[in-house]
């Protein structure tokens, strides 16, 4: 029953498959429809980028799968999330806990809030090792910790295992987080805005560390970010989210070269580029919608340059559907077929001087 | 000493020296580090440590650098929200360095600031009308009726509707709040605006709206901008000239083409090479200079050149002598490096080693 949208012979079984996920939050102002009917698959060893702006639901969809949203006020209304044949959304909490930090590990935006400030870095990594491998001796755990810190490029690892998080710089803390995340050879690594809090030069270092970590563990990575540059750098496939829904999904080259959703197109034309002169940026007009009372029909229609106020955009929620050669490129736009590369400014090369 | 530096900086990029609106000479801002019960000063954070720069009327000067480089302190010291420790600030042919509060008042009509965080910089208890009218009232030029119209005109100018005037900041999204901040800054018809990370807190699609708005206002009112930001792509887009800061000093300054096309300082080169690629087609085709280590503490910067501890070109002289910001080695713009040479980190190359697996 697993969908096999990809072309070309054998399709690997996804390691993670999310279907029809809907998550709501109760707030004073009303029910926030944070995630609505979201589904995607994660294949072994790939980097799946999930991109969207604040409030698009990109983090919430993944966090609820990992059992990390507070319930209440959050509530998983429906959906399934299969990991190794089991539905994570219906799994007892203690079993889910065994998976988290083991087969599914996480890296967050701000390592200062995810590390314990009163425990040495080394102890925290060793603890992660021991929790998922009971019976590991202290000596073996420390040796593994040092090995991990060296792998992520923490210099003088033997000495620094005894230091506390505040003695690490932001970049070094993020390295330590990555070391901890890969401690147990995860199958899935969720990286939620892993470089957002860091300076450009440190970001570049962390990107290299993530690549090294993936090489070491062969983990499939879910890369959640608002940064299209990071997606361009690392992702194999991309999920674009808007107002709690998946609006486009496809191979990273396809998404950048011939996006088929007006929102994706708008994101690309909004960006100032390093490689081309632009007289004006082409922003998406208007404001992001309220998730308490989302617009009827396609949530993007009030800001859409392509809708031209056609009725169907205002009345009917567009389904996420494949088109073209059916190479796993999906778009949730009624008029996806009308959009083609002509709508995108010429990219690399043409404008560079 | 400082005079020659300033001259070089302004003269280097073009000959138009006549219409300088802002000149900063050897500007220094040190913050004392206090410790103990008696609050003894035990050191100084050298946030800005000898900055020379000029801004010409009608241009946008971008200031880029990473966190802690002093770019925000520089902006705030220039408009004297923070008192400088040393140096000189000349705005519109007036030396304002020693100006007291009262003397600054008329100057503030001409030079305004827009802050990064549109959530923190607007008083939540004031309506939009009160926020935008406040500068007019403070300067005693708010008249009944007329003032009301002025506020509504300002809101329209920044792309908000006059009906928004009676609402409170929390009713607006981040982008709209930043527009309110811009309307407030515009209220007194300033000549110059210091824009301190004006779009960093905003989502990409909204960033572009605000960037375009700022460009349009500049065209319309002939504004001069000092645009402080860490995002190198945005700075490239908005700036005529760019100054690169590292640990309290400007290490390189030039036109947009000079800085992005022919950077000469190793730090500028590393910074540019670290920016993520624009499209996946560029994977493995961009030189990557991955800097070792972290930025040293501004309380205890390295001797000589401050970048030397992370620099692959550093030699003995770099520890001994602080390199002056002057044109070097056949270059056409000032750069503070003993071993400055052109490198083009943004050019795509076909054969960057370790071109990793294709998608």
Q: Could you characterize the architecture of this molecule?
A:
The complex is a heterodimer of chains A (353) and B (359). Chain A has twelve helices and twelve strands. Chain A has helices at residues 58-65, 93-99, 111-114, 121-132, 138-151, 157-160, 170-181, 200-217, 228-234, 252-257, 262-270, 311-315, and strands spanning 16-27, 30-42, 47-51, 74-83, 86-87, 104-107, 188-192, 220-225, 237-242, 245-251, 321-322, 330-331. Chain A has an eight-stranded mixed beta sheet with strand order 6-7-8-3-9-10-12-11, with helices on both faces. Chain A has a four-stranded antiparallel beta sheet with strand order 2-1-4-5. Chain B is of the alpha/beta class. Chain B has a single domain (3-110, 190-358), classed as Rossmann fold (3-Layer(aba) Sandwich). Chain B has eleven helices and twelve strands. The N and C termini of chain B lie far apart (55 Å). In chain B, 47% of the residues are buried. Chains A and B meet through helix 8, helix 9, helix 10 and helix 11 of A and helix 7, helix 8, helix 9 and helix 10 of B.
Using brief descriptors, characterize the structure shown.
heterodimer, A: 353 residues, alpha/beta, 12 helices, globular, disordered N terminus, disordered C terminus, B: 359 residues, Rossmann fold, six-stranded mixed β-sheet, four-stranded antiparallel β-sheet, 12 strands, 22% strand
